[in-house]
Amino acid sequence: MSIKCVLFDLDGTLLDTSYDFAHALKLTCLEFDQPVLNYQDIRNTVSKGGLAMTQLAFPGFEGEALETRRQTFLAHYMDSINHHTQVFPGLNAGIELLAQKNIPWGIVTNKPTYLTEELLKNYRFASEPLSIVCGDTLTVRKPNPEPMFLAAEQCGVKPEECIYIGDHPRDIEAGINSGMKTAAAMYGYLPTEATAKDWPADFFFHTPYEVTEFIESL
């Protein structure tokens, strides 16, 4: 196998951010006198982004009313962005293996830069990511291949030498569009009905520990 670089999606793949998102959405619902949602419903929606989570909590709202609630939600999230978030158990060992093997790695996320930087500033990995490409780094984002190309370039490898791991179909699509190997993080924020047959990925990781085992095999 000619994989020389590992690229991760952020939310639901590298970091478990769901509890802080759920807390921020709870505060938003309370602020607007809306019923608080079930945590599992929020978790299954995290990878779809802030707008989808806001729409989940405020069905029927649109336009300025929805945007006001989305901005309130994002403000609450910014305030509590690192209260409960952690690296998925088992993945720190994988990052340590990447450092030991001198394998470059990076992050490609649709999360905006300001939230990504605030989230990551308190984390110290065994080796630092050589690339962090956010949803607003370029004028396009996943599943467009350009963010993937940029990440590969910053990591000093060719796209076809990368594997991209993500928990949303658009992640797999982005990897395929850029000629990378792809892996579905089945432990991430998937809809409850999602199964491996729905994902045209090269690999399937059902736990974070399987990601580390894969890195060990490189």
From TrEMBL:
Domain of life: Bacteria
InterPro entries from the UniProt entry: HAD-like_hydrolase_sf, HAD-like_sf, HAD-SF_hydro_IA, HAD_2, HAD_sf, PGP-like_dom2
Assigned keywords, A-Z: Carbohydrate metabolism, Hydrolase, Magnesium, Metal-binding
Keyword flag Oxidoreductase: no
Name the record gives this protein: Phosphoglycolate phosphatase
